[in-house]
Each structure stands twice: as C-alpha cells, then as structure tokens.
Amino acid sequence: MTNLGPIQAPLPEALTTFLAACAAAIGAGHVSVSAVDLADWSLCTFPWSGHPLAVLSPGTAEEAVACLRLAGLHGCPLHPVSRGRSWGLGSRRPPRDAVILDLSRLNRIIDIDATSGTVRVEPGVTFSQLQDELTAREIPFHVPSFGGPPSASVLANALDRGEGSGAFGDRFGQLWDLDVGLTTGERLRTGYGRFENARLAPVHGRPVGPLIEGLFSQASFGCVLSGCLGLAPTAQHGCYIAFEIGLSDKLPAFVEAFTGLIRDRVVDYHDAFFWDGAKQIASAGIAADLTQPPPPRAYEEWLATISISANHAMILDCKKAIVIQTLLPFCSSFTIDEDGEPGSRNSGLRGFSDGGNVTSCYWAKPALPDGPLNPDRDRCGFLWLCPVIPLDGVALARMAQLTQAAARQFDIFIMAGAEAATERACHGYVSFAWDRDVPGADAKAMAAHAMLMEAFTREGFHPYRPTLPATAAAAPSQGDWAAVVRRLRHALDPAGVLATGRVADL
Ligand SMILES: Cc1cc2nc3c(=O)[nH]c(=O)nc-3n(C[C@H](O)[C@H](O)[C@H](O)COP(=O)(O)OP(=O)(O)OC[C@H]3O[C@@H](n4cnc5c(N)ncnc54)[C@H](O)[C@@H]3O)c2cc1C
C-alpha cells in the first residue's frame, strides 16, 4: 500500500529541480523565490508555522496544469491561492510549508449568459471586476454582495463555501461544471461541459451520475481553473430593516417569530443577520476613535438586520408590513433604510460589496491607514470561528453566552453574528480582533480562540468553514470517514502534494 500520510517539505535540491522545470513551463519571470516576495506572502493576521517556499504565477489554465503535473512528478507540496484575501481564515499562508500556486493572473470572465443569468469565471476574477462588468453591460443579474473585500476571488469564495446576501447567497450551491486540474496532469469538467454538445453546461449543474464538485470544495484535492456560477436576478426595489432586540435573553422569542417569516417565504434565508453589540460598534469605527467607551452592556445588545427586495414596489411594501408586524412585539425599536434609488447598482441588495466591513479587523489598532486596507500588511490580529448554530433562539443565546464568557476571561475583543443559512440552521460569525504589535496579544488571542472553539465543539456547534488553527485542532471524526476520504484524495492526488493539511484528519 502506498504511504498516504502527509509528505515532508522537499529537500532543497528537489525544490530547485522542481522550480527549474516550472520556469521552463511558465517562464522564469513567473517563478519567485525572492526574499521580499516570500516575506510578503508570509504575512498573516495570526501566528502560523506553514511557510511559502516559492511562488508560481501561471498565466493560463494550461500553464497551471503544467505546474500541478510537475508538483506531482517531483513530490513538491503546492498550495493554490486565487486572490489570497482569506483574512482571518489563513490569509495566503499554506497549512504546511509549500510552494504557492498563485492563480491571480487567470482573471478572465470567460462567458456571461445574460439570458439564463450564469457566468463562467477563472479564479483570479474579483467581486468588483465581475460587478463592474455586469453593471457596464446592464445585465439584470448580480453576484450576491458580502462583507468581505471586493478584491477577493468570486470562484475561491464559492469553493470555500462563502456566502452573500439573499436567496442566491449560498455560493457553492450556485457553482457547477468545474474545470479541474489534478497533480496527475489530468484535467476534467465536472458538469455537462464534459460532453461533446455542452449546451446544458451553463444552465444545469447536475448531470447523470455521481456529483464530484464537493471533492474540490474546502479541500483542494484538485485545482479549480474555472467554474460556472448562477447569478441572482436583480430586483428594482429593496430595503433593510434593523430591529433592536436587547440582551441575548430576548433572542429566543424574536428568533421563533422570525423563523415563521422564513418558512412562509416572506424573507429568504441569507437575508437575515443577527449581530451582537461588539460587531455593531466595530462596524462604526475603531476603538481608538471612540470619544468615550460605550457601557459594557452595549457590547451585549443584539440587533437583527433583515433585507427585503422585490421587483414590484407593492410587493416590497407588503413584505415590509408583514415583517414589521410579526417582529414588532419582540423588539424594542426598528429603523428602515431604503437603500438608495430604485434600481441602483451601488447597493448591497444588488451585488455591490463595498468592503467597509474590513475596518473591523482594525478594531484594536491605534489608527486606520490612509490608503487601501490590508490587514496582513497592517499587522491586524484577526481570526474567525465559524460554528453552525441551529436556527433557534436558545442556541443562538448560548453562542452569545459562550462568546461573552471568553471575551471576559481573556480580556479580548470578540464580535459575534449569525446568518440564517437554511430554514433550520444559522452560520455563526465569531471574530477576534487584536493588535499584533502589542507584546503578548497574539498568544492571548490564540488561547481565547482555542478555548472558545473547544466550548463550541462541546456544545455540538461544529464549524462550516475552515480556519487554519481550527482545522489543525479539530477533534477526530468518528467511524471510517477519514480513511475513506484519504483514499479518495489519493486517487486524485496520488503524490499527496496538493494543499496538504487543508482538511482535518487527513
Ligand atoms: C471583515 C471580513 C468580512 C468577511 N465577510 C465575509 C462574508 O460576508 N462572506 C464570506 O463568504 N466571506 C467573508 N469574509 C471572508 C473572506 O473575505 C473570503 O473568504 C475571501 O473571499 C477569501 O479570499 P479569496 O477569495 O481571495 O480566496 P483565496 O484566499 O485565494 O482562497 C481561499 C481558499 O481556497 C483555496 N483555493 C483558492 N483558489 C482555489 C482553486 N482555484 N482551486 C482549489 N482551491 C482553491 C485556497 O487554498 C484557500 O484555502 C470576510 C472577511 C473579512 C476579513
């Protein structure tokens, strides 16, 4: 039996031979081992031990496949990065020492089907690039907006099972017909793109037979070179309604009433967000800018933001009235934000991501920088925990309780929020923000993160999205899951070189 365990970092001679072969395949100018580049690629919002050994920047899908094949041939660990904006999840750091496969030059919007509302993109295509293209061509569809940086990769965010607002917010659920390169040198399409007449490829994602897209999500068992993404139809009218709920003991009644709105299809899941006071305060500015600190209770007050959109003003008005009437008895007050002019593309409800939320990474820094925000370069401490919470107010209140206990015990700033991801469950967003320049702050934050993750695991609130530390510390799975998935991985990446350490237990 071949050894399926993790491979070791390559010996320097093996790495040199591999890089020389890559330089012949993609051009020496696109292979970097410069100390300056490697230092830049090593930046992260938390301490981590895996290092980039070199950076390969292929310019085409064929060149990327050549690098993958050579990595398999030479047994050299390779870690794919599309845009590397995974701030708080791992930035551009590999789980273990590896050469980086930088896919940012693969930045073509290959095809837009304006009738069906689908798009085929390469991994380097960013949210702002796609939104600008859809707006310029007046296409009545959009990519659901999100709180992350607009310079992130649409495809990588979908592969990582990221989410945006609205009914099409489950990005992986809207992704199909992946073009995948393997370290064997093979290349395959997972959808109808594999047939001679590929007419169905942009409109239907589930061809007969086993569906294998899942093997490339949060796993990188292969490198995805492009994929087809379903876009959301852009509604003319929309608004946000924010409900002040109060302390976490008020969550159960509010969430129960809210769940009825989702079941009745008045509100879509991914349209409702719950925020604690810490997250609300950090959205408005950083700690250093506060003239006086808010009272401790303010950090623990919960708010729900519900977005509603419709193509007809009357439908919007009806939905608004039903939402307010249903939730009014369970909140202390509410406000309505009409969200710009009808039809404006500069709206979060119509695909515009402004990246404003990234300032929350700077909460503990002495000041915000003047130029573009880059939490890696600005030495922000930032780390997510992403637990799934049943869509039930008692469970949500428990998440709040555990989070506040950790914040108090470690005297660290933790923000908590959750988004209804289905009719039955929420995706929790718990983020830790600190200043990496303060001595001892890294160690304290990592200890608080480990403790809270353990508390969530004990509660059965397992994660839906990986961060490097959470994956490394994950509890072993029961039964034969790991053995079976290890064999699947071995079939796709026999040398075991691609993104090693990315999946817990493997
Ligand atoms: C303040 C803040 C708010 C945020 N809000 C949101 C939010 O609302 N919703 C949300 O979803 N995210 C959110 N994020 C998370 C983050 O912005 C995204 O996950 C971001 O999209 C990741 O960066 P990227 O797209 O450049 O992916 P990358 O960093 O390039 O890749 C992400 C992962 O996928 C793997 N990968 C990349 N490309 C490929 C490929 N082609 N084939 C195989 N594997 C690949 C990488 O190895 C890496 O592990 C937020 C982050 C911050 C800091």
TrEMBL record:
InterPro entries: Cytok_DH_C_sf, FAD-bd_PCMH, FAD-bd_PCMH-like_sf, FAD-bd_PCMH_sub1, FAD-bd_PCMH_sub2, FAD-linked_Oxase-like_C, Oxid_FAD_bind_N. Residues 48-234 form the FAD-binding PCMH-type domain. This is FAD-dependent oxidoreductase. It comes from the Bacteria. Keywords: FAD, Flavoprotein. It holds the Pfam family FAD_binding_4. It comes from Bosea massiliensis.
